[in-house]
What we know:
Among the domains are: 159-284, Butyryl-CoA Dehydrogenase, subunit A, domain 2 (Beta Barrel), CATH 2.40.110; 440-584. 57% of the residues lie in helices and 13% in strands. It has 17 helices and 14 strands. Strand 4 and strand 5 form a beta hairpin. Helix 1 packs across helix 8, helix 8 crosses helix 15 (517-545) and helix 8 crosses helix 16.
Amino acid sequence: MSEYHAPIDDMQFVLYNVAGLDEILALDEFQGMDRELIAAILDESSKFTSKILDPLNRVGDETGSVCENGSVTTPPGWKEAYQQFVEGGWNGLAFDAERGGQGLPWLVATAVQEMWHSANMSFGLCPLLTQGAIRALESHGSKAQQDTYMERLISGEWAGTMNLTESQAGSDLAAIRTRAVPENNHHRIIGQKIFITYGEHDLTDNIIHFVLARCTDSPQGVKGISMFIVPKFLVNEDGTLGERNDVRCVSLEHKLGIHGSPTAVLSFGDEGGAIGYLIGEQNRGLEYMFTMMNLARHAVGVEGLAVAERAYQHAVEHARQRVQGTAIGSRERVAIVQHPDVRRMLMTMKSLIDAMRCLAYYSAGVFDLSIRHTDDVVRQYNSDLLGLLIPLVKGWCSESGNEVAYIGVQVHGGMGFIEETGAAQYLRDVRITPIYEGTTGIQANDLIGRKVLRSDPEILERFFTKMSQTVVDCDKDNPHLAPIRDALMVALKHLRRATEWLYEIGRDNPSVAAAASVNYMNVLALTVAGWLMLNMAIDAAAANGANSGNGKHLTAKLISAKFFATQILPRAQAHTDAMIDSSSVALELEEEQF
């Protein structure tokens, strides 16, 4: 098994040259933070993830979490690693310093989270859900609720979960049946939830469940959903733990991957009703849940990036060590990294990872500006832009993570199909990312429905203009940049063509628009990624020309951007042609013909 090494040089280049971390650090809220501090944080995170989390990844896969009599035991070493995680303050990087957090930008926290998930995705899922719970609480909770739960959630002393799904409802939240019966200053929660990540575990003394339920006097459908805090142990007024609440783990799911992460079936109210506390206003739970959901969707896209990076490192090491066949034009037996098709596969992995990192980090920077910038207009612009970007990060990065892990198995050849080499685990683990927190189809339909067809078209047009301006400003005579610029110019043409068709078909035939949604998501994601890769290449070329950096690293950035532009970005035209020419074909078979 290879050892994970955080690609800090790649991360820092994207943080500063693509995602705009210097601009974010210049905000009043981050005064006193500089590049030296960020470098120290990334270095310490790299050490923790490489030495503590990475060795536990295989252990978690082989052992898994186990449920006995409603109690869940995580894999060997998990509890000790989590304690070190909490002591290091890693859980609270991006949260309020006055409540025990580090007060860092989400952009920096995103880079650190990439390391968690590269080293051990199953472990990283616990803080991922906790951070979503904190975000919901700080956005919608009462002061009393914040005072009771936030500091311990931020520190990681307690963990948080998100409880949406029910067996009869799946992703259709309008069909949830969990009930909330009013009683004094709280409600009694009665129902069952499935697919609850870290719904029960032994890492923390308390687990704070954020649960969607329907009050007895609420209407049916999504307009009748409320959100409740349901702690595993009730909390006394002095902050100590009280009696066990009426919530139990019924079982754990047996999954394709992420075996170390306990995915629980939770039963609320077997003994009369779990005590739950209403968050915010009644019947606004779905709105509040999306505060958690959008953060989680971005994090899942980062998971796709992270596992892709780990699969790539594993494949590169194997390709360098595996001697097989002879070099072209020679009788000398060579490592397979010298074979052209293996180089093609590794280059595809590398350029996709660079593009995914650009998109995920850029979006995290937009999120920081949307909540931290002092100018209302700037905040609103970035909030609108973030709405467009989140489905791309979640949908395209998770699908691309699967592509990279798939190629990683292929690089190993027959050995990739053997569990002992470890390549298969990355493919199994990352396979969940296009499914949970909303499937790729849900992301794509959200994109075309809520973010394109029902939003102000000026939002999209401003973004298209910004990308086009980069093409105009780019030095077309620079031989390193010209092929990237030209490929992006073509992709932008097809993106506009796809968008104009979508506006037209969306009015006349929404079913065909829905059938085209994943293709449209891919066109937009590929083009945005291509634009960000051009920005990366422009800065790499400038630094290389000024001899102001590591020449080999800068050259690698240029080659990666050129490969993406010439080998992967052309997929945007294929997706555009498919959606315009034949989206309706998906609807032509009668139901019984499937």
